[in-house]
Amino acid sequence: MFVGIVGKPSCGKSTFFKAATLAEVDIANYPFTTIKPNHAVGFVKVECVDKEFGKQCNPREGYCISGWRFVPVDVMDVAGLVPGAHKGQGMGNQFLDDLRQADALVHVIDISGSVNEKGEPVEPLSYDPVNDVRFLEEELDMWYLDIMMKGWDRFARSVMQEKTGIARAIGKQLSGLKVTDKMAEGAMKFLNLDIEKPDTWSEDDLKRLAVELRRITKPIIIAANKIDVPGAEKNFERVREAFPDYRIIPCSAESELALREAAKHGLIDYVPGDDSFNISESAGLNDKQKAALEFIRVNVLDKYGSTGVQQVLDSAIFDLLKYIAIFPGGVNNLADQHGNVLPDCFLLPEGSTALDFAFRIHSDIGNSFIRAIAVKTKRTVGKEHLLKHRDVVEIIADK
Description:
This protein is α/β, with parallel strands linked by helices.
């Protein structure tokens, strides 16, 4: 599973990416700073279960601060997309191909309107960020449609003659975009397309199908970046009104990056996603540093409750993709063979069962599954038991 960070050049994508991962990347105010995609590990925030057992966890991956478990996810910063990307403009084909295996997209937009459609600096509030949301939708939809349209007439006739099933055929054709047979079948039913006669579908029918499959396989959350620029809040409200179906989160990537770097160097105590921070007594900050932190406190944290960066990642995983966090553990012992308490936390799709979890740990455990125990209640459950967010589960398997 990985999350793709997308948007036009110079909107703050790389700053958002670095703030979310603290990876070293090029950040500059000119188009196409990022040419090759940057991969790094980001983290989603889960309330840790350790305190419910009176313990302190020892994560094998990620970390835990002040009762919050940070679970790793793969994040990729893709070079800036420009209008016409699906036609190859601005190296668009390469950048779109980088997104093929993304499970969800974070669309970083410059909500202050200080960068035009080409990624060039303009006067703040002079560009309408509503255009950016529409542009990305159109590029992604046309990308899917272009792939589907390649040899469509021959493809449709072949499906009818060989009676292979249009859902299976489309699933195979778009498998590189993570489209499955089941997804294709559901989308066609939702759109009331005649699955028996795909050769009668119009170009508009194909586009509607492409849009639906893109929505399913590449759900988008919008990071309304640079919300701290004076006047940006009005743009934020307009974008929310224009796209009521989107999750749109006010965001200041620069502020989050500054806070995480300060915390990394021991200058402040800060938990990513929190609405406040404390300056360390031994920090020895100069007046400029104090003023910068005070600006973030007053203009971002006090106003919006967070910088938005952590909330965007959390929402992408838990709201868009609907994953849940599950902790392996034993009723009589929460530690592994090395004494690490609750060392692991796995992200699974909502609707996962105890058996799914067993296979997620290891295929041998799944194949030899006998039963599971819900550790919090000490109740024995079967393989079809549906798991809930923050469950602690012990798997009993045949040795």
